[in-house]
Amino acid sequence: MTNTKLPFVNKAQLDALCAKFPTPFHLYDARGIAENARRVNAAFAWNKGYREYFAVKATPTPAIMELLRAEGCGMDCSSLTELMLCEKLGIRGEEIMFSSNDTPAEEFALAAKLGAIINFDDISHIPYYIEHVGPIPETVCCRFNPGGKFSIANRIMDNPGEAKYGMTREQIGEAFRMLKGAGAKRFGIHAFLASNTTSEAYYPELAAQLFRLAVELRRETGADIDFINLSGGVGIPYRPGEPMPDIAVIGEGVKRAFDDILVPAGMGGVRIFTEMGRYMLAPYGCLVTKVLHMKHIYKDYVGVDASACDLMRPAMYGAYHHITVAGKEEAECGRLYDVTGSLCENNDKFAVDRMLPEVNIGDTLVIHDTGAHGRAMGYNYNGRLRSAEVLLMPDGEGRLIRRAETPEDYFATLDF
Ligand SMILES: *Cc1c(COP(=O)(O)O)cnc(C)c1O
Fold it and tell me: Whose CA is nearest to atom 7 of ligand 1?
């Protein structure tokens, strides 16, 4: 069997990039990101107010945010520094969705100052906001958690009853009345019920549930429902052979639910928002790393110059990330390896029992689908320094968009 899932760069391109930028580094494909964003916007073009709010936590890098903003995306923030990134880029007002939880007052305050749309995660945050920040904005959103299990066609997809997010059905009605009493004029409803799902039925099913809820809440509370935020959760195919969910099919499915439920209720002006991170970025980024050592004990180990500090998903979730050995794309995958980093943690493995072509010291490995929740989840365990980020421009040039950390960065917080 040869490798069927190919990276967006070939060996010659990688050699040129590695001559300029020391490995390891995360590489992003500017053209791929822009083309995908256009497909997303086209899929929801039937809805006049549609907007994708890119989940900044997935890839909090200014050059990436600006690329998406140029395609019309807003930004979904959930922390102080994510809001500050927007502030520095001149992104403000309704271009920002603030979907946080367990939120400190100073973060609400910055969101308010920037004019972001505030998405309340809990009913108790409403009096907290009024006490610590000030008057309720005219446009607000509440996050819903239906509890129980979330299933599509009798298949359980996720377990909202165990999730810390959102308000119960009773609370969201009460929250709308409370917010209305405090001066809110336009309301949004948000829910995130399944993570990394490649099912094209996810958004349509979630949308149908939220559309029915919107009709009920308007009837119960008289609230003017301005938008429905489908949040994130749309997955990508990490494994070879899995299909990429077709966003056009997903958009059509949401439209059907919209036409069935909201239009007959006289709510055809409701805007649809999404907050995708993974679907917008994951396939358009990869981690480029070189082989430092080959070790043969009870198993065969490929030791690379990246570690879980650069990409935590395999260590944290046992997540699969495909690996290509540059220049050996056509070679037989006849060898069984564990691909490891250098952390003193045995879970620092990018792959366990992976069939690859024969690997040699100095080979360049491409770890796929790291564009979202990759560099962003990095950490500094073992004093490891996090890697650089490079943007592959449409003309083939690599642009450094974040330098690698240095020992000075690591020591900057210490008191000697
Ligand atoms: C993480 C997150 C997202 C993005 O999720 P993806 O699975 O990357 O699409 C969107 N909204 C909120 C509130 C999140 O926490």
Answer: 233
